[in-house]
Amino acid sequence: MKKIKEILGAFLDVLGLELHNLSYYPIYWCCMVVLPLLVIFFFTDIMQEELPKNLPVGIVNLDNTTTSRKIIRKFDSFQLTDIKAFYPNVTEARKAMQKNEIYGYLLLPKGLSEDLIGNRQPHVSFYYNNSILLAGSLAYKEMRAISTMGNSAYTLAKMQKMGYTDRDIMIFLQPITIDEHPVGNPYLNYNAYLSGIILPSCIALFIFLMTAYSIGAEIKFGRSKTLMMKAHNSILIALTGKMLPHTIIFTLIIWFYQYWLYVHLGFPYECPYWHMMFVGYLLVLASQGLAIFIFGIMPSLRMSMSICALWGVLSFSISGFTFPVDAMDPSLRLLSWLFPMRNYFMIYQINIFHGYPMHYAFEYFVALSAFIFLPILVLKHIKKALNEFEYIP
Amino acid sequence: MNIFRNILQAIYDTGKVFMDEMKIVLTDSGVIIFFFVVPLLYPILYSWLYNNETARDIPTAVIDYCHTPMSRDYIRRMDATSGIDVKYHCNSLEEGKELMMQQKCHALVTIPSTFSADIIGGRQTTVGLYADMSGMLYYKATMTSLTDLNVDMWEKIQISKQHTNYTSRDEELSVHPLTFEAVPLFNPAGGYGSFLLPAVLMLIIQQTLLLGIGLSAGTIRENNRYGTLVPLLRHYTGSLRIVFGKALCYFMVYLLTSTYITMVVPNMFHFIQFASFASIMTILVPYVLACTFLGLTISSLIRYRENVILIIVFTSVPLLFLSGVSWPESSIHGSWKAVSALFPSTFGINAFIKLNSLGASLADVRYEFRALWIQTLFYFLISAFVYWRQIEVSIHTRSLNAYQRALRRRGKL
Q: What domains can be seen in chain A, in order of their start residue?
């Protein structure tokens, strides 16, 4: 009984020390509260269009007849593109594209309507900038639609004259149609898709850095010996007492992000709300666990923070939400297990995004939870560092 | 004579500041990490990540309710497309969904039981595509492949059915009175790496420069007896001398680093490279200068050396978005554009992409070029002001300290 009281007392002492740090140094509340909130607001606000609309495109009309103008009018009515300018020739249009004023241009060749009537198969081209991938592929999608429509308009008129019914013509034009089901994101909402994973990645990055920083700062400012003394020389008490306020604050931040995205903005999620909250909490613990582990291996403030920064920044790529991990080098597929964000993304994708039952993400839950226990391997080393090491700049 | 001596003294002081800073850059291991190790390794790491450029052969499950030679032919053709790899044949949609849940496939295609009867009978038939939207590239690859396949099939069906055509040219014309062609420019393969890397490379220059300068300033402050940014030395009396001396040091180092990043790295990984050495240099000089002075401005806020990592690292992804690479610039609204104008990376990335990926001429990047020089001037003035303030602060702190010490001594006496 006396022992428990002693442990509790030590724990509260350490907690008090850390709370003092958090309130005393502005860098803590800045990086734990202000900047994460700013990032949440930034990403959801910048993508508020959800799907980029009215991408500027140009027209090079060398034909200038009613037929070509009809095609242009149709092109203008599309939602994703917006005709910004007409250019007298291809060179001008290309220059505008190189200046990034337009993402693509439609080239209607000279003699278009003549060739069409004379059955000489004119050739219409759409040039688009593929070096800006999202804009390029959206413009391409529109182009596909216009090409089908352009053809169909002409065929429609021709076949009507031949006495076919509208239904016959539709079948002629599209004997096989695709019934599209974008599973999990039927609205093609990029905001829901990108924010749902960029934001936790950003928060995880803050957790990584803050965890390594707060432990390393003890050594740097020469407080580590006091800390260990207050913790009765128990590294477990020192670390848990020190990390508890961080865990609470970051969990609240991640819950706020989930509230903001899924309740306030109303983005779809397919699992019970508490389940999402639990996964968020798990991510906080896993990120802290990994950061402590990294610090344990390299108990220098600068090195551990550099590695944490590297890990956090790489998470954006290796979680695989923009470029699938399956398509990367096989060795990277193995490496991706070492990133909490990768496992979080898989759980997010399987449970939250698609709403599949929990057990389908079982292995990722195991992997994510394993990060929480990583610090056990280096406890001794951290203890030695806190007790003996001096700060090396 | 006096003016002449003053100028000489100023040049000498600047040189002294330059030498001191260079010593830090070459000996402080933290600065070495950010100035040399990160710029050397990050580009290689990123190129490795996106080496495969596109997602091909998405594992797909097919549910064939039709079971006729025609549907099997259709599936074979689907398998042959670049985007779809028919990995599983299922008997029911449930079975396919199960495979999708287990992450074994990322798309399902259903072929209706009436597929071949419809085509032969001249009725429209519908193929179902269920694409996993958790990766946009899955959707993009399968959707494009299936649409292309249907266009091919359409031509086949129409040509075989029309009896009014006499020659093969007639046949072609009856299906395609007008041909359309979409030409992807500047990144013909649609590669993900070719798209993202130029932006990342330019961003690395800015971020590492800000980190390194901040770290060095933090170190100076920590080593200083009174915690001020400007050491109390004879050569550190003019803010212009300090700013010029330091900027010259970073500029020299970064001209080397950024040349490696913008010219050697793309070459190593065979990325598109249109720009000449001279035109890249024309942009790099104001870009590195603007970043340097921004770094000097920010560094005045850094109290302890490691704090700079906390403040700079997380900005990388938001800055990438603000530059209009991930999210089209035309869809970013005014207030965020104003924010993006504060950072050299916005103009640096755009200028580099235009020059290097789009093959624009220097005249086409006039806007970015000017913006970078304006930023250089703007941040130069601010950093000069900031250092002028810091000199005042350190003189003040010193005299305050001297006064207190004197008081104490007198008390003792």
A: 2-48+187-388 (no CATH), 55-145 (3.40.1710.10)
